[in-house]
């Protein structure tokens, strides 16, 4: 099959005439033409810029006589100024406007398949983004080449003046890829509307041929419109061409912004029918067909997609026609592709302004207009901002429906009813709370967190991971554990080195850029030379004369050397295949670093402008599917179209598409539409704002509830407890102007609809009432049955898809605080599609001018690599006279949006507020025109008088709540957050000992995969009213019981089980467990200590009982009998948290104004202490019961001794909070609340400065905040920070089984009268050990079920089957008790038979027995303990 594939595209038409520009009031504005300023790509300090895409300036947008878009004022002859009346009058005649720029502007949108790219090969030319063959790393992305030939056909239906005689069907060919220099263009060409400025890299290194590459960028243009095909033959001509894709212009809006792509993806039809004469009225249809001049560049051509036709069509985001046969689906032929679209009944009238929805959009911003609500919301994510807006106006029925695009307000209420479910596809209580937590965690971008190595030797099911050999040494004298520790140490150093190297590469670029932008760089070159030399070149250059010497190693070279050494060392342990590694390991990605994203701005009531089906798969057609009668006029047009053979056999299909469009048989399918008035298709939003820094001392941490839902529980959040509006003068504020540009993408409403559908498809989910099935009750009334009505769902999803809003992050906000610029700017290297990085000759010359030799200059540019995306402020931003330091390493303050400009693809603009002159003397209180709906997490603190705590407090800044109680305010709360990537490290810890058995320094280290992090267990024994303590392995140690002369009774250690040998006992019992028990043991010689011990035990009992009642139910495998006897086992663990920066603290990048002192940024960061909250009682899915303070893991004096202070218990007010003590002993519990939150300080460790005697792993461990915790072992524990996502940590399942298989329930019983005596003497052959019952079960030595009841040594009235219970009978030890030790009985385990309780006459004597009754079953089924 060689016939073309036809893909529909969207075609829009915009009418430009004088009335369109001559608007008044709130009507949409027409922006002057602002093309990319490629002059700013020069490395001259007079023109270099952060962004060559200038902001849209609307001050001259109206009247038409002063709008450069159509006004002749800027090209008129110069006349002498009349002193008496110096103001020119441009509107005296119709000649005030440029007639050739009026008419219809067409734009065609490229399908989604042309907008995707992939990484190519470094140094290897690739034109196909899907060619994955031989792809080395570090390549630049490749985007598909787009159609570069477009046939535009105009079918004229009516026109005026009647004497004009334009052809009824006219056509032109657009050559999108034709490249021309300015001197090659015709003299009458309109440089702003008929050609496109373009960046074209000339790889010819000969300057005599290519000239100054950067200077020539402002002199190159692409785009060409042929003469009319109605009168002229068209044939391909030899011309310079560029490989054209959506991204090779260094302009992100290139493909969709008609001002930036005339005669490339758009065309002007000015209706000129004779030279200088133009139609005044016209009604016409427009048809567009596009193709590749070389069919092999088609997505389905030789250089395109690979595989079967069906696979290629799907990869191009299209779908085959229904009923396509299998042979066609399996075709692998190379075929051309035609893109086609048509728009009918476009009406042009030179004197009438077409209707446009944009006027309604603009009116929405007018506080005095017909709409009572401002259509702006700010949230932390797109979804959050949508729900915020809907919540704010859920009761504004009329206005809500207008702004939402006619969507009934009931649909919005249904969305709000599902608000939490949209974040968690479950309807249970825990999931709804998790959903709210999830929202706070979604507002972060991620950065790679490095890797770690794990031992990978196979293990048996339900057993702990295999541990590496610690004894056997190889030829190098190392064990497997030594190699594993080496690997992780080397890997972490390598990860940090890679991140530091990227930062230093950027710093090298930053110094280069600052030099280029410095107007005094000739005088100041030495300072740039010194900084760049320190970064790279210190080994080669002593001064500016190129002298080589053996000096200090530069920073970058040192990092490169370190990286090479580390990679070699890692490969020595784990070489590339097929070589055998020294130990079996696997490489696992580490936790990612996070950085808070900028707030999301939402503009409601504005259609995104993207076709509704843009994200759907487009329906393609084959040549045979296009059917329409032929038309002689179309045939005549095509007779003048001569295509080269390289384009493929496409002319016949083009004719079919034109005939089909001409007769209008396409119907309502994609690619066929009627013009219904002026379109408004937003492409980007420009915003300006003022950031008011609120000093760190004015922030506090509190627990607050969300007003968004009654189900949500308190979250940790930052507040401003004291009023901020004093002082209230602008001059007294630490403020910064920030701005940015948001690209409008088609995702928000489509993504929301997809989530809605996904949520409601989940079985068991709570269905909003408006979507439930309606059934008829027996009494004839209509009722809802709670089940989802599929028809209502389909209608609801369509309504959600129809919601009108656009949104995007306030990109540039955080960068602005870091004194960084964003945008398209000059770079010292060139990255061509599919190729590696190439040095820009002009940049090399600049670096040599600074004082470096040519070879080093080239090395520097290559070293910068891709770290050139953001620019330093340098001298491009002036902070002279500023009272405050402009650099903010941590953001905390309030943001007020001062201006929003929405620009559509044709240059239409909605601006709020409207452009106006700035006052010469700024007012004390600025004017805030924009008052958005603010999401919960961005809402300023509510003061005690129920007003918002904002930096200015005036009538203009105080809003009434919306009808639903939502806050409106010009001020957006920016709570503290680090302005660079960071992460919370969380690990279970164990004590670290050196080879001599002495506690290491620092004493805590992270647990390995095979280390048991649990050092003890606590179990509530209800029959004995005691707390039982077990070792980390689940061996019973001791119990504390209420009562006795001292209020608490401590059982004998290990009793009733035999004591382990002393050398084993010291290893089994942790000192921390002993210290905790000591807090609850009375002292006969110290009444105060005894009273305190009683209070401590009661506090622990009440706290644990309250916590267990608040926890999730025990797992299903938990023994029902055990659950009636003892509470859920709780684990004792040590946990460490730290706050790590991915890179060293960012540094200020401005050079005009107050300069911070050396080390200012590091010192500032080290002063921050961010409060953190451990656990949360209100969230049942959190496992923290309490925690105790433990020595932090420090090197510095006084060094940590790994001692836990058990005197104070940090916990929550569980239901049982009283210590129930009649003494004056204080309650040892202290509530976990903001005043008691511990803090974390950010840190970064430079791997090149690590003390080799310590090592990186110990350096990182020394940063841990260490706490000892009592936790529910089945439930994760959480750390809440307010600056980063919630950090979760959970015990490994195997660690639970290791203990649970040894743990069982037992309690004291007696005296009990039995009719049959127990054995009178101790059986030396059956001593009772802690695991005796386990061994008996494992050896299948349980009692024979057929055994007669009389055969049991003891019978008791018990429930359960035979063999379930043991009686632990005490006996006197015949051996003398050593002096000073407690008398210790011996125990035998006797199997218990069931006493029926029936009346009988057993012979005397009867016996009273006292001992322990043991449940001879594990607390948890051992096979499922880790589930």
Would you mind describing this structure in some detail?
By secondary structure, this protein is of the alpha+beta class. Helices cover 20% and strands 24% of the residues. The longest helix is centred in the middle third of the chain and has 38 residues, at 480-517. The C terminus is likely disordered.
Task: Map the helices and strands.
Blueprint: E1 5-8, E2 11-16, H1 18-21, E3 29-30, E4 103-108, E5 117-119, E6 141-143, E7 149-160, E8 169-175, E9 179-181, E10 196-197, H2 207-210, H3 213-216, E11 220-222, E12 234-235, E13 266-269, E14 272-274, E15 277-278, E16 281-291, H4 309-315, E17 318-319, H5 326-329, E18 337-349, H6 357-364, E19 376-379, H7 382-392, H8 397-403, H9 409-417, H10 429-441, E20 444-447, E21 451-455, H11 480-517, H12 521-535, H13 555-573, E22 585-589, E23 593-596, E24 600-604, E25 618-619, E26 621-622, H14 632-639, E27 641-642, H15 651-663, E28 672-674, E29 682-693, E30 700-704, E31 715-719, E32 735-743, H16 747-760, E33 772-776, E34 782-788, H17 790-801, E35 805-809, H18 813-817, E36 820-821, E37 829-831, E38 837-839, H19 841-850, H20 854-864, E39 871-872, E40 890-904, E41 908-912, E42 933-934, E43 971-978, E44 982-993, E45 999-1006, E46 1014-1021, E47 1026-1031, E48 1036-1042, E49 1048-1050, H21 1062-1068, H22 1071-1078, H23 1087-1110, H24 1120-1125, E50 1130-1141, H25 1160-1166, E51 1170-1171, E52 1173-1174, E53 1184-1190, E54 1204-1211, E55 1229-1231, ...
Parallel strand pairs: 1-18, 12-27, 17-25, 18-28, 19-42, 50-57, 54-55, 62-64
Antiparallel strand pairs: 1-26, 2-4, 3-41, 4-13, 5-6, 7-8, 7-16, 9-11, 10-11, 14-15, 16-18, 19-24, 20-23, 21-22, 24-35, 29-32, 29-40, 30-31, 33-34, 36-39, 37-38, 40-41, 40-43, 44-45, 44-50, 46-47, 46-50, 47-48, 48-49, 50-58, 51-56, 52-59, 53-54, 53-58, 59-60, 61-65, 63-64, 63-65
Helix pairs in contact: 11-12, 11-13, 11-20, 16-17, 19-20
């Amino acid at each position: 099959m060689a016939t073309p594939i036809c893909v529909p595209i969207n075609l829009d038409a915009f009418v430009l005439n004088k009335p369109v520009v001559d608007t008044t009031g709130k009507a949409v504005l027409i922006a002057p033409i602002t093309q990319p300023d490629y002059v700013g790509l020069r490395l001259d300090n007079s023109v270099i810029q952060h962004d060559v895409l200038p902001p849209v300036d609307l001050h001259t947008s109206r009247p038409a006589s002063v709008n450069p878009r159509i006004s002749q004022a800027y090209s008129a002859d110069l006349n002498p100024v009349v002193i008496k009346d110096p103001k020119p009058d441009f509107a005296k005649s119709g000649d005030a406007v440029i007639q050739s720029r009026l008419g219809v502007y067409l734009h065609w949108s490229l399908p989604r398949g042309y907008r995707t790219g992939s990484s190519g090969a470094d140094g290897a030319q690739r034109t196909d983004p899907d060619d994955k063959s031989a792809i080395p790393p570090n390549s630049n992305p490749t985007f598909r080449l787009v159609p570069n030939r477009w046939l535009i056909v105009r079918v004229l239906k009516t026109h005026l003046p009647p004497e004009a005689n334009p052809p009824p069907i006219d056509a032109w060919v657009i050559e999108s890829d034709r490249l021309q220099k300015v001197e090659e263009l015709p003299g009458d060409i309109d440089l702003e509307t008929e050609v496109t400025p373009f960046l074209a890299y000339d790889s010819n290194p000969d300057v005599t041929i290519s000239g100054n590459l950067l200077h020539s960028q402002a002199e190159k243009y692409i785009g060409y419109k042929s003469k009319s095909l109605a009168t002229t033959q068209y044939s391909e001509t030899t011309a310079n061409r560029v490989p054209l894709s959506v991204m090779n212009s260094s302009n992100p809006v290139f493909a969709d912004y008609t001002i930036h792509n005339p005669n490339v993806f758009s065309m002007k039809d000015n209706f000129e029918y004779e030279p200088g004469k133009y139609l005044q009225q016209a009604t016409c249809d427009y048809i567009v067909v596009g193709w590749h001049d070389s069919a092999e560049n088609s997505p389905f051509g030789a250089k395109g997609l690979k595989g079967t036709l069906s696979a290629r069509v799907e990869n191009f985001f299209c779908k085959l026609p229904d009923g396509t046969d299998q042979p066609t689906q399996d075709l692998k032929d190379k075929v051309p592709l035609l893109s086609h679209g048509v728009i009918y009944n476009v009406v042009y009238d030179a004197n009438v302004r077409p209707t446009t929805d944009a006027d309604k959009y603009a009116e929405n911003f007018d506080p005095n207009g017909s709409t009572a609500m401002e259509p702006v919301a700010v949230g932390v994510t797109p979804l959050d901002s949508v729900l915020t807006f809907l919540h704010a106006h859920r009761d504004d029925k009329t206005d809500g429906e207008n702004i939402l695009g006619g969507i009934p307000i009931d649909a919005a209420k249904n969305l709000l009813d599902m608000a939490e479910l949209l974040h968690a596809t479950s309807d249970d209580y825990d999931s709804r709370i998790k959903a709210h937590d999830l929202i706070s965690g979604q507002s972060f971008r991620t950065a790679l967190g490095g890797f770690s190595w794990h031992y990978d030797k196979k293990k048996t099911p339900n057993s702990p991971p295999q541990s590496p050999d610690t004894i056997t040494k190889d030829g190098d004298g190392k064990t497997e554990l030594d190699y594993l520790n080496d690997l992780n140490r080397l890997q972490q150093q390598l990860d940090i080195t890679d991140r530091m190297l990227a930062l230093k590469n950027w710093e090298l670029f930053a110094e280069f850029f600052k030099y280029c932008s410095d107007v005094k760089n000739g005088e100041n070159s030495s300072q740039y030379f010194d900084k760049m030399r320190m970064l790279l070149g210190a080994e080669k250059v002593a001064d500016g004369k190129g002298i080589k010497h053996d000096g200090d190693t530069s920073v970058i070279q040192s990092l490169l050397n370190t990286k090479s050494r580390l990679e070699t060392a890692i490969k020595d342990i784990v070489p590339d295949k097929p070589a055998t590694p020294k130990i079996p390991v696997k490489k696992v990605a580490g936790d990612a670093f996070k950085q808070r994203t900028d707030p999301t701005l939402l503009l409601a009531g504005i259609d995104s402008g993207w076709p509704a089906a843009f994200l759907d798969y487009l329906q393609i057609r084959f040549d045979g599917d296009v059917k329409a009668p032929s038309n002689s006029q179309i045939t005549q047009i095509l007779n003048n179209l001569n295509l080269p053979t390289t384009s493929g056999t496409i002319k016949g299909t083009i004719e079919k598409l034109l005939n089909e469009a001409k007769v209008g048989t396409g119907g309502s399918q994609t690619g066929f539409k009627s013009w219904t008035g002026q379109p408004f298709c937003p492409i980007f939003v420009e915003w300006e704002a003022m950031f008011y820094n609120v000093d760190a001392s004015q922030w506090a941490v509190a627990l607050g509830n969300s007003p968004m839902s009654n189900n949500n529980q308190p979250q940790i959040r930052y507040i401003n407890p004291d009023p901020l509006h004093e002082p209230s003068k602008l001059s007294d504020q630490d403020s910064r102007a920030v701005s940015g540009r948001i690209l409008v993408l088609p995702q928000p409403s489509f993504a929301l609809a997809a989530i809605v559908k996904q949520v409601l498809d989940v079985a068991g989910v709570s269905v909003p009432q408006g979507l439930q099935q309606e059934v008829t009750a027996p009494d004839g009334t209509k009722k809802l049955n709670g089940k989802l009505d599929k028809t209502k769902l389909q209608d609801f999803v369509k309504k959600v898809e129809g919601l009108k809003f656009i949104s995007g992050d306030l990109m540039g906000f955080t960068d602005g605080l870091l004194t960084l610029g964003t945008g398209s700017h000059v770079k010292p290297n060139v990255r061509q599609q599919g190729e590696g990085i190439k040095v820009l000759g002009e940049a090399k010359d600049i670096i040599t001018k600074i004082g470096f030799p040519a070879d080093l200059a080239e090395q520097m540019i290559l070293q910068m690599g891709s770290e050139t995306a953001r620019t330093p402020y340098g001298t491009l931003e002036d902070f002279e006279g500023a009272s405050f330091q402009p650099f903010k390493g941590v953001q905390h303050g309030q943001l007020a949006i001062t201006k929003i400009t929405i620009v559509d693809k044709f240059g239409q603009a909605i601006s709020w507020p409207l452009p106006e002159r700035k006052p010469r003397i700024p007012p004390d209180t600025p004017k805030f025109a924009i008052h958005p709906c603010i999401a919960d997490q961005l809402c300023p603190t509510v003061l005690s008088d129920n007003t918002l705590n904002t930096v200015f407090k005036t009538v203009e800044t105080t809003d009434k709540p919306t009808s639903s109680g939502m806050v409106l305010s010009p001020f957006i709360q920016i709570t503290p957050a680090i302005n660079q990537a960071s992460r919370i490290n969380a690990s279970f810890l164990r004590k670290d000992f050196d080879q001599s058995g002495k506690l290491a320094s620092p004493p805590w280290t992270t647990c390995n995969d095979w280390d048991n992090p649990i050092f003890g267990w606590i179990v509530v024994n209800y029959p004995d009213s005691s707390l039982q303590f077990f070792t980390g392995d689940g061996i019973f140690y001791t119990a504390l019981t209420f009562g006795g002369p001292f209020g608490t009774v401590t059982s004998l250690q290990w009793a009733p089980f035999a004591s382990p040998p002393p050398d084993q006992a010291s290893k089994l019992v942790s000192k921390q467990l002993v210290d905790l028990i000591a807090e609850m043991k009375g002292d006969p010689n110290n009444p105060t200590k005894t009273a305190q011990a009683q209070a401590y035990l009661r506090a622990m009992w009440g706290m644990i009982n309250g916590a267990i009642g608040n926890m999730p139910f025990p797992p299903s495998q938990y023994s029902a009998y055990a659950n009636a006897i003892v509470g859920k086992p709780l684990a004792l663990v040590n946990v460490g948290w730290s706050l790590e920066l991915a890179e060293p603290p960012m540094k200020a990048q401005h050079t005009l104004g107050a300069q911070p002192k050396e080390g200012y940024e590091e010192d500032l960061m080290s002063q921050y202490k961010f409060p953190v909250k451990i656990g949360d009682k209100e969230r049942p899915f959190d496992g923290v019961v309490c925690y105790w303070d433990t020595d932090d893991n420090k090197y510095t004096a006084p060094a940590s001794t790994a001692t836990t202070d058990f005197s104070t218990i940090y916990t929550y007010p569980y239901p049982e909070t009283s210590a129930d003590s009649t003494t004056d002993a204080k309650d040892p519990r202290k509530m976990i609340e903001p005043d008691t939150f511990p803090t974390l300080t950010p840190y970064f460790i430079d791997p090149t400065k690590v003390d080799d005697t310590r090592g990186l792993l110990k350096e990182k461990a020394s940063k841990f905040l260490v706490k000892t915790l009592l936790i529910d072992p089945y439930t994760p524990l959480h750390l809440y920070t307010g600056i980063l996502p919630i950090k979760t940590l959970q015990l490994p399942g195997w660690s639970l089984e290791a203990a649970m298989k040894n743990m069982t329930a037992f309690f004291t019983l007696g005296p009990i009268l039995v009719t049959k005596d127990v054995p009178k003497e101790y059986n030396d052959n059956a001593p009772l050990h802690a695991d005796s019952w386990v061994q008996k079960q494992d050896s299948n030595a349980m009692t024979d079920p057929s055994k007669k009841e009389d055969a049991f040594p003891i019978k008791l009235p018990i429930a359960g089957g035979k063999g379930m219970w043991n009686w632990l009978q005490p006996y006197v030890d015949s051996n003398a008790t050593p002096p000073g030790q407690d008398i210790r009985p011996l125990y035998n385990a006797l199997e218990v038979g069931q006493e029926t309780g029936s009346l009988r006459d057993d012979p005397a004597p009867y016996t009273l027995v006292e001992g322990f009754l043991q449940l001879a079953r594990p607390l948890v089924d051992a096979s499922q303990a880790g589930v």
